[in-house]
Amino acid sequence: MPIRDLKAQIARLPEQPGVYLYFNGQGDTLYVGKARVLRDRVRSYLGAHGTSPRIDALLSEAQRLEVIVTDSVVEALALENHLIKQRAPRYNILLRDDKNYPYLQLTTGEAFPRVLVARRVERDDHYYAGPYLPASLARKTMSLTHRLFGLRSCNEIITGERGRPCLEYDIKRCVAPCVKEICSAEEYRVAVEHTKLFLEGRSAELAIGLRDRMIEAALAERFEQAAQLRDAIRTIETLRTRQQKMSTTEMGDRDAFGLKLGPAGAVVQIFQVRGGRVVERVELVTDAGQAQVTPASDAADGHDDTTVPRQHAGSESRGVRVSADLPECDVLEAAVQQFYQDRMAPPEVHLPTAFPEADAEMLEGWLSAQAERRVRFVVPRRGEKRGLLELAARNAEVAYQARFNENVAAHYNALEILRAVLALPSVPRRIECFDISTIQGSETVASMVVCEDGRMKRSEYRKFRIRGTPAAVRSGDAVPGALITAAESEAESTGPDIHTAADLQQLAAAAPDARVPAPGSRFLNDFAAMHEVVLRRYRKLLETGGPFPDLVLIDGGKGQLSAAYSALVELGLGNLVAAGIAKKEELLFTRDRTDAIALASDSPALLMIQRIRDEAHRFAVTFHRKSRGRRDLQSQLDAIAGVGPRRRKALLVAFGSLAGVRRATREELVKVVGAKCADAVLAHFMAQG
Questions:
Q1: Mean pLDDT of the chain
Q2: Domain annotation covers residue 647
Q3: Tens digits of residue pLDDT in 362-402
Q4: What Å distances lie between residue 235 and 138, 140, 147, 205, CA to CA?
Q5: Are 470 and 581 found together in one domain?
Q6: Is 657 found in the same domain as 526?
Q7: Contacts for 652 with CB less than 8 Å, ≥ 6 apart
Q8: How many domains does the chain have?
Q9: Which among 11, 46, 306, 432 has the fewest CB atoms less than 10 Å away?
Q10: Rounded to whole angstroms, how far apart are CA atoms 410 and 603?
């Protein structure tokens, strides 16, 4: 393991606080951690192999180590935060801030402003309001401004010279500044001012202005306009009374962290209270497809072994899922560090669970140094403070349900069931499934499909043409019991392969003790093909360095599974877990169990396996049909050197058929394709007799 090569360097590390960084062979930063005593902390990794898949992955990739000594643990913490933010190492947690909320842009830089949805605030002449959460609220508010104040939503250049207004005016969503006889520039300016008051939240001032205009319109007997203003006032007052006023003078300045941790990821909600009023709500999120989390065994020592974002689909690195059994303090510690990296902490930070004493002291010191006053962590137990904390937790749960829909949760539930049934060391996030397709042993092909986190990854599908029969499978020597009786295999076989009597005799001669299937059985070639395709697939992965699957799924029973294991053992990958699924009874076969595993017909795990198996079968059959079609459309002339599509067509047109080409003389062939090609054609047919 590469970490062992760093043993001498680790022994010379200083016994001082600081930051340590692991790098891979390409110089990419894998992990950044802090330590009270660098030598002790880094030395603990030498014996950490096997504690978790995440740690194993880190140790297998780490080839270089660097340390930075600091004057104090607080400085180490600050430096660690800076390096994590700057380098985004693969094995540290990165929680994403949800400040990508939409804003509403009142284009006051235009002569006739509009209200638009914007994703960021620019330094221009326009007015911005927001951000709005959820994002749909921005569009609803924009629609309300059209209905209440009649601001235009079109992209026209307004001159006031239009002959008639558009439909928006007829449905009372625009005051029609395009027709100056209906709405003058001054009247539109008043509508813009009212819209700005509304977006600024100055509802009381806006209601007073609208009420004055309503009375004025009523006195002038413009009753339709007065009724419209009356409805606008009622809507604004209704919205104002519905606003949540979370305010109490006893709450002071504090931040409350709520957490929802589940199989699909984690959501952290932070309520910022200033002057006794909740002024902001921030959401941090990480998901299982993008993060890895420290196991409890490693986090319990009080060190900052938090987590990291996983690379996107198709990348070679693999990660450990965020799971519900992870200690909350691990995610909360990462959230606190990242949230206050660019923010000033209030005097109190309320948490749902307490940090370990050493970590709490370290983080409080860091936040106090930043704020130049004392900052402390509090775990409220009762009263209004606890109520706010529970409110933050409820919001985190709502956000979790909204972000990770039911389908995603169902996928993780199925994978968790599969892990328990197959006794896997971790949830099988990546599953690779193989299937063989052939007719009478001809044009035999294989397919491999990939399922990651319950979703099929079409970009990583692979198809194979079977080249030959490996001796290891034909002899049955690679894995004991690789060949089973014809009766057993007939009950579980999935392939339509038929071996000839000559093949069976050769197999019997090579392995006299093996239980050889009877002639006419439908599976023997399936074993050889499965061995070959698994061997080729994982030999290639060994050359490229992965990613290796958590589970290899074989479309077949004991025979096909044994053939797959024989290939894995041959490559030194016998530690990979494989399982076979046989049709008809839909039973699961594993190497470690003599009896088959029968899952309930409505089991999420079985339904997922069936979906993956059926996709592999579809992909294999499609490829086989194409291969068979190409074979049927080929001509013997294609096998002759120098005869391409054009010359083949010329020969067939000149002589009518392949038989006519065979009967043609050299002189006749020379007239069509030339002397050199004619000699090649004659030599080809002479060799065939």
A1: 75
A2: yes
A3: 889 889 988 888 999 999 988 778 888 888 888 888 777 76
A4: 17, 13, 10, 14
A5: yes
A6: no
A7: 635, 637, 658, 661
A8: 5
A9: 11
A10: 11
Determine which helix (DSSP H) or strand (DSSP E) holds 493, and give its type and residue range.
none
pLDDT at 497: 36
Q: Has residue 297 been placed in a domain?
A: no
pLDDT for the residue 384: 77
Look up the domain containing 508 and give its range: 416-629
**Residue 613 sits in the same domain as residue 666:** no
Q: Where does residue 108 rank: exposed (0-12), middle (13-18), buried (19+ CB within 10 A)?
A: middle
Query: Domain ends where: 602, 629, 656?
Result: 629
Is residue 262 assigned to a domain? yes
* Helix, strand or coil, per DSSP, at residue 409: helix
Per-residue pLDDT of 648-671, as tens digits, reads 788 888 888 878 888 888 888 888
Looking at the predicted structure, is the pLDDT value of residue 645 above 60?
Answer: yes
Percent of the chain with pLDDT over 70: 74
Alpha-carbon distances, residue 367 vs 20, 95, 243 (angstroms): 21, 19, 33
Q: Are residues 336 and 191 in the same domain?
A: no
Query: Which CATH number is 399's domain given?
Result: 3.30.420
Look at residue 406 in the predicted model and tell me its pLDDT: 55
Mean pLDDT of 547-575: 89
Residues 564 and 473 in one domain: yes
* Whole-angstrom distance, CA of residue 483 vs CA of residue 515: 6
Q: pLDDT digits over 1-23, tens only?
A: 577 788 888 888 888 888 899 98
193 to 132, 225, 361: CA distances (angstroms): 21, 18, 51
Determine the Cα–Cα distance for residues 604 and 411; give it in Å rounded to an integer: 8
Tell me whether residue 308 is in a domain: no
Q: Which alpha helices (DSSP H) does 550-592 contain, by range?
A: 558-570
36 and 113, same domain (yes or no): no
CATH code where residue 643 lies? 1.10.150.20
Residue 256, both tokens: 């409350």
Say whether both 388 and 532 belong to one domain. Answer: no
The 8-class DSSP code of residue 249 comes to: T
pLDDT of residue 358: 82
